[in-house]
Design a protein that fits this description.
Elements (H helix, E strand, L loop, with lengths): L13 H4 L5 E4 L1 H7 L9 E2 L2 E2 L15 H6 L8 E5 L9 H14 L9 E3 L4 H6 L2 H15 L3 E5 L2 H6 L3 H12 L3 E4 L11 H13 L11 E6 L6 H6 L4 E6 L4 H5 L6 E4 L2 H15 L11 H16 L2 H26 L3 E6 L1 H13 L3 E7 L15 H9 L4 E5 L3 H11 L3 E4 L5 H6 L4 E3 L8 H16 L2 H8 L8 H5 L5 H4 L8
Parallel strand pairs: 4-5, 4-6, 6-7, 8-9, 8-10, 11-12, 11-14, 12-13, 14-15
Antiparallel strand pairs: 1-13, 2-3
Helix pairs in contact: 6-8, 9-12, 13-14, 13-19, 14-19, 15-16
Length: 506
């Protein structure tokens, strides 16, 4: 296992650390075998396998690491994020403000706006440097907000000119008496935006987490996004308290992560770096178990947490009660969903969990698109191999693709599978599905499918989607797709990636 180095201010990218890929097409079983958890892997190079990535000649659209810093560091309630960038990099503050406010409302927290500001670098700053603007912004932020911490996120522009944000952060940490945390998250630093999660988590581990903790034996770190509070009721059954991080946490919540008895998450993609950083550097064990989706995954997750916290009896009693309560509800939903075919387009580990739940509901799932694939996670523990867990427990996924939100590929992927509905995150792909007559559920509540109630919740959400199918079918008859006849006739979504010379032909 590679040790997480908190002495450095910049995190290693996912492709360096985990071998992350953003282009692949095949089936789930083949990808699981080719990845680095030693299922049947024979092509090892160091600690991970060599994966053959399908690399296209262009990128139609994606997200960058800096935006993930916005949706993590920018969501700490009593902190401020400074985007050391041109103003254009701040355009996504609008959508993240909406998501942040909705998340606070769902959790019954005081609703407020984000505290993210931009240094508004101009052309002259690109020539002469932008550190004076950064210092002035720090002064202004302190005068206006008196935050408990300030994060400084870099951009492609500051990466190009080489502004030394580390020295400014150190200077103002001493001057203001609060953590001023440099986050190196230039968009070109990594080919996939998930490295931005790691950048935020790295800075928090270095500069905010308490170095001399006093253990709280009933406190559990739950690494999450903005979803509803499903973990408090679950962990309460084991007499445990939830410490939600990073989104919508306070600086104190982040500081006390080193005092917890364990760290868990709902998605290994999101939690991989932070959980291992806490385990390796602060002695807080990461739960090594399947994700809490479906009966099998949730059972294993609860039992694993109970073992870490010496609460096995409570766990078995809870599991038995929940099975008895939820199974009749699920049977009713399964009857209504009989014969339906679904498709999942989300982040990687999250997709694996959603497919598990859909198959427990009796839904046929023979296709999925994930936005990237990590051959391993930071613990390198086979218990966290979510793709192999899906295949071994719920069967193969025939059409399993990796693509970082490339709309031109999504068309052929959906035509190949022809689902009745899709579950989706990062909603830019949903309008294309609508044009094909396929209703989509944009999963705004990331925790909708977590735990025993999550099986019922997801089933009911899908039933709601299917009620709108006639509308989408009618819509498809009156819209035109923005692609050439030649492209619409292609059956291989990756034909241009495999044959890049085609883009130069008439």
């Amino acid at each position: 296992m590679k040790r997480i180095n908190l002495a450095a201010t910049a995190v290693e990218s996912r492709e360096q650390r985990l071998g992350t890929i953003i282009g692949w097409d095949g089936n789930a079983d083949t990808l699981a075998n080719a990845s680095g958890y030693a299922r049947n892997c024979t092509q090892r190079s160091g600690k991970t396998c060599e994966l053959c990535e399908v690399r296209g000649p262009f990128t139609q659209g994606s997200v960058c690491s800096e935006q993930m810093v916005e949706c993590q560091a920018g969501n700490v309630r009593d902190a401020v994020l400074i985007q050391h960038s041109p103003i254009g990099c701040a355009v996504s503050q609008t959508i993240y403000n909406s998501i942040y406010r909705n998340g606070l409302s769902i959790r019954n927290l005081p609703v407020e706006n984000l505290r993210i500001v931009s240094t508004n670098l101009l052309e002259k700053d690109m020539v002469f440097g932008g550190l004076d603007k950064l210092k002035q912004t720090l002064e202004d932020v302190w005068d206006r907000y008196k935050p408990k911490a300030v994060f400084i996120g870099t951009s492609c522009a500051t990466g190009i000119i080489g502004d030394d944000i580390d020295s400014v952060a150190a200077q103002y940490t001493e001057k203001l008496g609060i953590p001023v945390v440099p986050l190196h998250c230039e968009g070109f630093r990594s080919k996939h935006w998930s490295t931005g999660f790691d950048s935020t988590q790295h800075g928090i581990l270095r500069d905010i987490v308490r170095k001399q903790p006093k253990k709280q034996e009933d406190l559990v770190n739950v690494i999450n996004l903005w979803g509803s509070d499903v973990f408090t009721p679950m962990l309460k059954e084991l007499n445990l308290r939830v410490n939600y991080v990073i989104d919508m946490a306070t600086v104190e919540d982040l500081a006390q992560m080193s005092e917890a008895v364990a760290t868990v998450g709902f998605c290994n993609t999101l939690s991989s770096y932070l959980a291992q950083g806490l385990e390796q550097n602060f002695g807080v064990p990461e739960l090594k178990a399947p994700q809490p989706y479906g009966f099998a995954g949730t059972d294993a997750w609860i039992r694993g947490l109970a073992k870490l916290t010496n609460r096995e009896e409570l766990a078995e009693s809870y599991i038995a009660r929940e099975h008895a309560r939820v199974k009749p509800l699920i049977e009713d939903v399964k009857t209504k969903l009989k014969g339906k075919k679904g498709y999942v387009a989300t982040g990687s580990a999250y997709s694996h969990g959603l497919i598990s739940v859909m198959r427990e509901l009796g839904i046929e799932v023979n296709g999925s698109l994930v936005f990237h694939h990590d051959p391993v996670y930071d613990s390198e523990d086979p218990a966290q191999d979510t793709l192999s867990y899906l295949v071994d427990n719920y069967g193969d996924v025939e059409s399993f693709s990796v693509s970082n939100r490339q709309q031109h590929q999504f068309y052929a992927l959906l035509k190949k599978v022809q689902p009745d509905f899709i579950l989706i995150r990062h909603n830019g792909l949903a309008p294309l599905a609508s044009r094909l007559g396929i209703p989509a559920a944009p999963l705004g509540d990331e925790h909708i499918a977590v735990g025993y109630d999550g099986i019922v919740n997801l089933g009911n959400a899908i039933l709601g989607i299917l009620q709108r199918k006639k509308f989408h079918e009618d819509l498809s008859k009156h819209v035109k797709l923005p692609y050439t006849k030649w492209w619409l006739e292609q059956t291989d979504p990756y034909i241009i990636a495999k044959n890049p010379e085609l883009i130069y032909q008439d």
